[in-house]
Every structure is written in C-alpha cells, then in structure tokens.
Design brief:
452 residues; two-stranded antiparallel sheet; mainly beta; 46% strand
Length: 452
C-alpha cells in the first residue's frame, strides 16, 4: 500500500492549494475522529476480499507560490514556463488532500498447488481519479509455489511501488523518493513473471521480469517497457534491486506516471522522433535491533532527451509534445530544430526508524544529484547543475493496528536558485518551494490514515 502525494503530469506542483486555508489543524482533528469511528476490519465474502486505505493530511509550507507561474499548465521544459508573474507574493501556504484506494480481490484454489487471483484497484484524490483513464490495478495472476506466478493486466511497477511503500514510507520519503527520477509507475497491459523463492547464499532470493507494450496504437515509435526486480533476504537484511529500460514512453522525471506512448495521441506518431529513458536502483534495509531499522538506497537515471515538436498548429494556440532536456533555438541559435539532449544523474537516500510500542520515530534524507548533459542551452544547464537535499523528521502513533496518526517536519535546500534538478518533474514538486525563487523550503504535515 502506498499513500503518497501526487503531482499532475503537466508541470504543476505536487500539492493543490486547499479550498479553505484556515483552521487546518481543526480539519485534521475532525478527520482523525472520523477515522477512529470507522470499523477497522477487512471485508471478505466468498472468494471476494476488499481492502484499502483512506487518508487525510494537511500541510503547512513556507516559500510557496502557487500562482507565480504566468502559464500554470506549462511543462518545466517549455521556455514559457519560466515566465513569472511580477510582484506575486510567495510565502506560507496551507494545503490539504484526501486520498482513498480500495483493492477488490478475487481468489480461487484450482487444486494441484495452483491458485488464481484477480485484482481491481483505483486511487482517488479529491474525489477524482489520480490519473483519469488509468487504473492502478486490473490484473489476473496464476500462482504455484513451485513454479512462481504469471500476472497479466494493469499493475504498478516495482520501481515506484517498492520505493514508495514500504521503503520511503518508513522514513517519511515516500513521495520524494518514489516519484522522482527516470522511472514509470503504472502499466496498462503488462505481462509479469515472478519466480518462486530460491535458497541463495543462506538467504531467500526472488527474481522477476515485467514487459509492457504501452499504447499499441503507436506503430512507428513503438513503446516498450522492461523491468527486472530482484529481492534478497537474509536474516535482518533485505535488498531490492530494480532496473527499468524503456523506449517511447512519455518523457518525464515523474516516476509514478503511467507508461503509455510519446504523447496521449497516436495521431502524433509520424511527427515525433524516438526517445527513451531508464533507471537502475538498489535499496537496502537492515534491522539493527528489534526496534531500529536502517535504510539506504541509490538510483541512477538516464534520459535520451526528446525533441520539442509542434503536433497541432494553430495561429492562437499550438499543441506541443512532451519534450525533455531541450535546447531551444531561442536560447542557442544553432539548435534550429529544438533538439533534446541525453542526460544522466544519480540520487541517494538514507534513513532510520525507531519503533517503541505503538510509537515510531523516523528520519530520512534524499539527495537528488546534479545531471551530466552536453545540452548547450543555459536553461538546461541551470537544471542540470542544480541539486536538492531533502530531510524529514517525524513521529507516528498507532492507537490500533489499522489507524495511524503522524506528524512529519521536512525541509529542502536546492544547490542554487534556478530551474529544479533534472530528477524533479516541476520546479516546485514535493514541498511547494519553487527552486526559481528560493534555495530553502520547510513544511509540516499532519496525517490520519485508516486501512481496511
């Protein structure tokens, strides 16, 4: 289960402004009371099971400026996204959100060690699907303890889901670590094979491979997604390794986004050039004692870059594709065709969690590193040379096994004032502090979570 915040795909910040900005603490208490009044149980009827979560949180952040960008829907790579509204105030902001996600399962025992499972799930935020037109889960899985499992359908990737939960969630970094970098998070029609558990080096090893064709209506720039996952457990040590290698998905640095095609419109196919991106990640957790868990991870990102192309021309408003790391001809005259340039970066994460009865205390640190690119554009170099260091310190309380209240304080410090680092999808993602306006940002999040 993952309960992170979401960033819309087209260049907005991760938290929408609350419709009511005052009395945010009172709203949190009311939501918490509603959760306490809920019946904390999963539901089962014959072969059907229903599980899920309901979450409310409220965040107070400084150095936020939700209305600073003159064209709010502009992508980070589009030069008109740099235009800020003169004199617009930035400062403290309160934002809140409600998320709910149920999982409807269907389970059959076929005999001879075979089991058949079905899963259907969707996530809503503010009463609307997080990604309109996409389900988080719609799959069928055939399992056998000796042969492993074969799953087909819509599903989440390991690169996002494991980074988000449990790895990032344990240390208050689920959104920051899970939704940054060059990965993808949701697959629409994938085939996944997961091996049985092997005995390996006095531990347990699981191997997995996933393939997805994305939007098959693209015939020239055909999408392809391949992911490999390895998990090794030995005693108190757990290692997860993930590799994603993709072609012709939507160019982005939003690792929770769906893998589909270069744009949402297959009619754009002949107008576009091929592009790709990939990432390799290793995450480790070690239980130092029964109460202390240490976490560490590293991720390598690679983007091929994507040319900026007008897909639909209009004298008043032209439609552009989803580009990445572009050298615009308005910045460098030699970049006549607005080419996209390759880029690579490395991100790191560290954290610790201490559990004491119903209480847990945690701290995390994520570093989104500078990027290497030959893009001569000053705009691109501003993003490539920037970095971001995030820190969290928090406490969680579980009055019952299914109810949790938590408070998380966080900060970000950018390497410089300018466009946000390459691993961030927008200039104000994660904390609402805009890298173009300030190097620092702080926030406090209060959260109530109910699972069933």
């Amino acid at each position: 289960m993952s309960t992170n915040h979401l960033t819309p795909l087209r260049g907005t910040s991760g938290r929408r402004p609350a419709s009511v900005r005052r009395r945010w603490a009172s709203a949190f208490v009311l939501a918490a009371g509603a959760l306490l009044a809920s019946a904390a149980q999963a539901y089962q009827y014959g072969p059907f099971t229903l599980t899920g979560f309901l979450k409310y949180d409220a965040t107070r952040s400084n150095n936020a400026c939700p209305n600073c960008q003159l064209f709010p829907g502009a992508l980070k790579d589009e030069p008109w996204s740099d235009t800020l509204v003169p004199g617009t105030h930035y400062g403290a902001q309160t934002a809140s959100l409600v998320q709910v996600q149920p999982w409807l399962g269907l389970h059959f025992n076929l005999g001879h060690g075979f089991k058949l499972d079905g899963l259907l799930s969707q996530r809503w935020q503010g009463g609307k699907p997080v990604f309109p037109g996409f389900l988080f889960e719609r799959s069928i899985t055939l399992r056998h303890e000796d042969y492993g499992s074969l799953q087909i359908g819509a599903m989440t990737t390991r690169g996002w889901s494991l980074a988000d939960y449990p790895f990032g969630t344990d240390i208050g970094m689920s959104y920051i670590w899970g939704s940054s970098g060059a990965g993808y998070g949701i697959l629409t029609g994938a085939l996944r094979y997961t091996s049985r558990v092997f005995d390996f080096l006095d531990g347990d090893l699981v191997l997995e491979a996933t393939y997805d064709r994305g939007n098959t209506a693209f015939k020239i720039n055909k999408p392809s997604f391949v992911e490999y996952w390895m998990q090794y457990r030995r005693g108190d040590l757990s290692l997860d390794g993930v590799i994603q290698n993709t072609r012709n998905g939507t160019p982005s640095a939003f690792a929770q986004g769906p893998f589909t095609g270069l744009t949402p419109f297959p009619a754009d196919d002949a107008k576009l050039g091929s592009s790709g991106q990939s990432m390799a990640m290793l995450m480790a957790r070690y239980d130092l004692t029964s109460s202390i868990r240490l976490s560490a991870g590293v991720r390598r990102n690679r983007w091929s870059g994507a040319y900026a192309v007008i897909t639909t021309y209009s004298p008043t408003a032209s439609q552009w594709n989803d580009m990445f790391n572009v050298c615009w001809n308005s910045d460098v005259p030699s970049c006549a065709n607005n080419p996209g340039y390759p880029a690579t970066s490395t991100d790191w994460i560290l954290g610790a969690r201490y559990t004491m009865g119903r209480w847990a205390f945690f701290s995390g640190m994520t570093y989104l590193g500078t990027a290497a690119t030959d893009n001569p554009s000053p705009r691109a170099q501003s993003s490539a040379h920037n970095s971001a260091l995030f820190n969290t310190l928090g406490v969680a309380y579980n009055p019952t096994p299914r109810i949790q209240f938590s408070a998380t304080g966080g900060m970000v410090r950018f390497g410089q004032v300018g466009r946000a680092p390459m691993s961030m999808a927008s200039n104000s993602q994660f904390t609402n502090a805009d890298a173009r306006l300030t190097r620092n940002g702080n926030y406090l999040t209060l959260e109530a979570l109910y699972t069933f």
